[in-house]
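sorry for the late reply, my laptop died twice this morning and i had to redo everyting from scratch. anyway the thing you sent over, i finally got around to it. pasting the sequence first so we're on the same page, its 284 residues, then the predicted structure underneath. double check i copied it right bc i was rushing
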Amino acid sequence: MAAFTAEHRTFLRELFQDRVRFDRRERKLYSHDVAAMPDLIKPFLGKTLADAVVQPETEGELVQLVKWARSEGVALTPRGKATSGYGGVIPVRGGVVVDFYRLRDIVQIDSANLTVTVQPGISWQALDRELLKAGLTLRLYPTSYPASTVGGWLAQGGAGIGSYEYGYFRENVVAARVVLPNGEVREFQGAELELIADAGGITGLISEITLRVQRYAPLEVMAVACPDARSLQQLVTALISQELPIWSLLYINPRMAALKNRAPARRHDEHAPEIGRASCRERV
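ok and here's the structure:
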């Protein structure tokens, strides 16, 4: 990668105005995720401090940034809310961290076809709140629902709450618009989405996503206790064979329940603290 120069800073200031940062402390905050890298791995990562942090507001700005970065040999690292903990947002070659915080609008809610089109920086919680106003809700979401982003989960990949019924997140995406490394904007659909999902932003910068949603309906929560692992396996096998209408299936073992009981009640946003404690017999 090319050295970061004063000319590079000038270009970024002109493009992003007050939405670019060069302060070392802020760059350091944007150069890691929620987890600490193991000491054995750190020596192999090289330079992990971003040279700049930018917050684009439009797809057009992403296009300009990508074309400039390619011509100047500057590395780009896309960043949602950095909740995965696997190091995908660490700028191992310095360069520019692209923070998608300002790209968080809902483009369209299609109640007839049960889809929603969003910008990548919207959080799952914010999206779900708007869907509820239209009588809709998410098919599935990650356990980091309050903070993580739609674009981040497509780039990271995986399963979450609701995946028992709806599978991996990639299977619930209809299309994704992506700014490719040459600055071209392309929409990926169907099997082509394999090039975007789980790729960590290597294929390009995601600028828009259309995903499937479902109509809102209240859920009934049920807890079942199993005396041992074999019984648990037999239970899950029976549930699958009977094709029961189960949306999500969660598991907690006695040790996890005991630790949960020892931990202080969690508070988040406007939600009330947790009521009650976990029981090995009630929550297994």
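Residues 154 and 197 are 5 Å apart (CA to CA).
thats about all i looked at so far, will dig more tmrw
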